[in-house]
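Moderator note: this is an archived Q&A kept for reference. The question asked for a predicted structure of one protein chain; the sequence and the answer are reproduced below.
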Amino acid sequence: MRILLSLTEKCNLRCSYCYYKKSQEERCAEMSDEVREAALRFALDKTIEFKQNALALTFFGGEPLLCFDAIRKSVDFLKENVQRRRSELPEDFGVKLAINTNGTLLNKEILEYLDRENIIIYLSLDGPASRHDISRRTVNGKGSFDIIAPFIPELVRQNAFVLSVVTRNNIAGLADSVKWTKDQGFTQIQNMVDFDGHWTVDEMNALAAEYYKLVEFWYEIKKQKSDFYIQSVQDHVLYHVLNLKMKQCSCDILKGTVGIATNGNIFPCSRFITSKPNPPYLLGNVLDKECHVFDGPVAQEVYRFLETDKKECEGCGIIRRCSAHECGCTSFYTTGSLWGVSPEVCTHERILTAICDEFTAKLQKEGEVEDVL
């Protein structure tokens, strides 16, 4: 099981592209001890029920470090319950912990704790200050890069995974920003696009130009046998070369992942999470012992999504590696439904795929593509 635990909807930043601006607009809800412990019991119960050998728990928000004490309590609670139920678990069972954070609340104590507990850090960082501060600002409207910068060396040492967002306002310099991230010593980055419904043809063309430079950079470092991982590029290459389907590889929606809101509501994945009343795609609540999370009507709809091709995508050559078709979270947050197809996402995927395929062909011709995979 993989559980995304939304400890709080509060956040000390007001990022321009936050996809929770509407679903968590009040930014005041916080998970109670009762809900948190029920969520952790639910996670362990389902892991045992499904006979899985790992439980992955990601602390989510809002900004989860606003609830650092709850993180520590969660880790201790999980350790105690795993030990108590050890006889029900396979010998090779393990707990994998992670946190999604904007990095602005880090300090020596927190970093030492994350390191000691082997908690993987997913760090929101859009690049150097000139780029990062365009979108990632504090409640008072100030840039947040200078708050994070002193901790970059330690974040590199702990092998933090960088999450970077591309918006219509920070297209220029995308490739250079990824190069900067590598120069800091980071080894992993995912560039995500803010599909806000307002991308113009000129902006998509500008993004295509940046992607060409980015994929060219990826091509050069792979020829040098660098282990720097650019997920948005490498996944497109992987799906193509190995003829894989994104839904089978990287979309974990309900197959092994659920997101839990501050009030205990359970959702198929991260971008569905909200504590608002009567939300779409609600699977149940951790406080309801009779809820049928994985076999109720909402779950059945998700399973149909995983097994069914969208009519708009029939005949498309990149259907299996296109997030407009394959990713439940992307479909939901861009169209409001699992079944919708965003024209923006479709255009974006065609652009990025074509560029990735061009450089993949070069690697294949040179006999080096296997080293990449």
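Archived answer notes: The mean pLDDT is 93.
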